[in-house]
Amino acid sequence: MLLRIAGMVNDSIVDGPGLRLAVFCQGCRRHCPGCHNPATWDESGGYQAETDDVLAAVGRNPLLDGITLTGGEPFLQAAAAAPLAAAVRARGLTVVTYTGYLWEEITGGPPDWLELARQTDLLVDGPFIMGERNIDLLFRGSVNQRLIDAPASLAAGVPVAWRRFS
Ligand code: SF4
User: Can you give the pLDDT at residue 165?
Assistant: First the structure.
């Protein structure tokens, strides 16, 4: 499947726990003031990548703990991102997904949004809000953004705070 991306970083240590392949999805409609990556807003920018090529990049780095889907807005491309995430998890790796949407919007959203949530281990939700910016936060830029344990939250039916990967 094709995923429109701005690029990938093969050895990120800032986009979730451990060593991660960060996949910067292209396209975001939130346009948060102070966004860290406005070059990813244009939904026709970036380039089309085969998800099999992303998986191949995962396979070439045996030190990876998992991938991080970030952006841009991964949920705008959930139909391609969800099976990619599933394939990564099938290899015993973890999936971190960043989104400008809220957990409640995602779980009440289209079926492919719910599927990407199902294939996510740690979800970082909510838009970046400049007035709530804090550079000391773990894996996120503003206080409103939540680190959500996606499997536990889906099981509980309410957002459950992420602590760490077991
Ligand atoms: S949701 Fe994320 S990528 Fe989109 S504008 Fe806001 S900070 Fe930028």
Answer: 81
Q: What does the pLDDT read at residue 164?
A: 85
* 6 backbone dihedrals φ, ψ, rounded to 5°: -90, -25
**Phi, psi dihedral angles at 3 (to 5 degrees):** -125, 125
55-65 average pLDDT score? 97
Residue nearest to atom 8 of ligand 1 (CA): 35
Instruction: Give residue 157's identity as a one-letter amino acid code.
Output: G
From 23, 30, 123, 129, give the residue whose CB has the most ligand 1 atoms within 8 Å, as the site to mutate.
30
- What mean pLDDT do residues 34-54 have? 96
How many whole angstroms separate alpha carbon 110 and alpha carbon 39? 26
The set of residues, in sequence order, having a beta carbon less than 8 Å from that of 53 and lying 6+ positions away, is: none
pLDDT at 146 exceeding the cut of 70: yes
Taking the C-alpha atoms of residue 39 and residue 133, their distance in angstroms, rounded to an integer, is 20
> How close is the Cα of 40 to the center of ligand 1, in Å?
8
Residue 110: is its pLDDT beyond 70? yes
- Which CATH code fits 2-28+42-156? 3.20.20.70
* Mean pLDDT for all residues in the chain: 96
